[in-house]
Amino acid sequence: MAKKGQTYKKYSAEFKLCVIMDMRDHGLGYRETMRKYFPDLQCKNYEFLLKWERIYLTEGAEGFMKERRGRSAKGARPRKPLDKSVEEDLIAENQRLRMELEYLKKLSALVLAEEQEKNKKQ
């Protein structure tokens, strides 16, 4: 379990592949691999090497490219495409809202400028 404020190092996919390939080619064990590639790690926990090897064996080198942190979207349903008329209405509404926002920004700037002019005169 992670402690509060603890950060983890994120290794590149190339480095993970290099470690696993070296381990498999030279017949290194997990402890030997830990000593060779991670001498600064104080813990003797090599579970991440087991995970890296499992990913390599099941998915190949491409498996290291996939982001695995966070929750997966198992319950998400694929979205249905919108009708053309609905999509056009949404685009028009979006453009109208953007124009309204720009107008309000400019109006706010003018009001602020007028207030500053009044304060300078007094």
E-strand count: 0
Distance from N terminus to C terminus (CA atoms, Å) equals 64 Å
Q: What amount of the residues lies in strands?
A: under 5%
Rg calculated over all Cα atoms: 28 Å
Mean pLDDT: 86
Question: What portion of residues is helical?
Answer: 55-70%
Q: Could you list the spans in which at least 5 consecutive residues all have pLDDT below 50?
A: none
Q: Briefly note the structural class of the backbone.
A: mainly alpha
Number of distinct helices: 4
Order of helices and strands: HHHH
Name the assembly state.
single chain
Give the CA-based shape: elongated
Outline the biggest β-sheet. Answer: none
Could you characterize the architecture of this molecule?
By secondary structure, the chain is an all-alpha fold. Helices cover 59% and strands 0% of the residues. It has four helices and no strands. The longest helix has 38 residues, at 84-121. The radius of gyration is 28 Å and the shape is elongated.
